[in-house]
Amino acid sequence: MTKGVRVAMLAALAVLQLGRAGWSIARYETVLREGTAFKIRTEPVDPADAFRGRFLELRPSLVLPTPVPDETRELLDRLHMDERKVYAVLEEGEDGFARVARVVGEGEKAGPTLEIAAAWERWRSDESGERVPESLGYFLGFDLDRYFVSERKASAAERRAREAGSEAWIVVRVKDGVGVIEDFRFD
Amino acid sequence: MRREVSWLLSELPGLVARGVLNEEAAESLRRHYGAEEPGPSRMGIGQILLAAFGAILVGGGIILILAHNWDELSRPARAAIALGTLLVAQALALYAVARRATSPPWIEATSGLLVAAVGAAIALVGQTYHVGGSFETLMRSWLWLVVLVPYLTGSSLAAVLFWGLIAVRVLDFRWRGDPGDSWLLALAGLPFLVQRVRAAPQSWATALVVLTAALATFLYGTTVTVDAPWPGLWSVFGVAFLAALVAAASWPPAAFATDAWRRRLLPPAWLGLVAIGTVLSFSDDWHTDTIGARSLGEPAIVGALLLAVACAAFTTVVAIRLAREGRRAAAVAVAAAPAVVILHAFALGGKTELGWIGFNLWLLAVGAATVAEGIREHRLGTANRGLAALAALVLARFFDSDLSFLARGLAFVAIGAGCFALNFWMMRRARKGGA
Fold it and tell me: Nearest residue on chain A to B94, judged by CA atoms?
């Protein structure tokens, strides 16, 4: 390989590397600018990431209550089996927080939708803790599991979150299946 | 001149074996021509190491500083910093390749900085936009974006970092699962390794690349096979791969004296092989081979099996050639690979006794043959490796048996005294030969 070819290929690789980073930035900026904002409740925990700094580990989830249509149940059950992407269509509930209007597949992800990372069915338990055959709906988990903050704010946030009665939530902008966390709040 | 010197150095073991030169004269020739050899591998080692470590420390320091979370900066500013650090590293690497291609410190330092900067840029974008997901997402993108850097810059440091990232990534698999592209990445990195081994076999940098690649591949293959729905597959992979490393280091025999990567690769590969062989000398491990249904499942496991079969085929050919050359110890060692495939097949059919008996015999044979070779060629290190294999066998059998503490204690003392006696005798012979 001549020097000229090496330099040209290295330049092309540089464009690819910049393009990868730049595409991510453009994608997230578009969501933040044009996406719809929703509030989702979460519990924060304060670990650290050697590569990316201090962050709050979040566990945002939404509940899809019963009755769950059969086609929705089938979509959610296949989420883990054949790795198809499934999306939650969000709307604002009466309490101001996000709720799931319905669940759709890849072809209908346009609009205020958020990709579902995990879904599991909830069951009622009797007084002894045994599960009874009465479904309470589905818990839906999302890939919004960290919020990067300064070291000082991270510890304070975790302490506040553990105070009795306090409630924490994230503000997420969603568009076409992609969600970007805009803010983290306490009541 | 380098070619003639390489030829002379490769002739030395044969000349010593035929009595034309004694070992001391051969060593003097090696020292003489090694000291006179010019080239960056001797003259610039300090510069290269300093430059390379400096680049990595600068890159790492920048990551840590930026990981302090700059709340004061706006999101666009943070994104600009992420792209800016990458741009600077790319510009330096381009300059090094275009204008400083003959300077190893420039090439190694800028290539190392580029690999670090790609990771830093991906991590910073993730931090700026609170991108969720796992460590795996970061590593996957990082690896695929830097796989070509060693080829385009010629940097060994970039190759070492690439294989190191594969090894680090493997550590996350037990918790999050294997994404399935690690074998593709390893295949993509392999040609550079072969290129380095052919172009600069005496170089310490080549040895480092080979060792890192071998370790990463071994870690990955073991991780995917140890939990595979095929009991015993981990041992087939481990023995076949390590035996293939021993075979690659041992053939051709004359190259061992000249190629640094062979001398660095052989001891850890050989000791790893003996360690796994010792585990396989217990009957318990072979009984699990008959339990439960077997399936290959994921593509990653198929990849590990294919690599194991390829290693077994390679080692079979090398074992035959080594035996014909009279290198019996190495031949016995690498024969463990075809042996484990055959014994595993018997175990799947219910004949598990052949497995653990076979590996007991293998440990005995490889230990005895290695000790004998060490004595014959006056190589204390070789003799001690053989003793290590025999000691592993003895220890395994003693822990596996119902003998009393007194009997085991006396046996350990006797064997240990034998080790000291052998070392003492060989050192005396070496001193007499020198005198």
Answer: A7
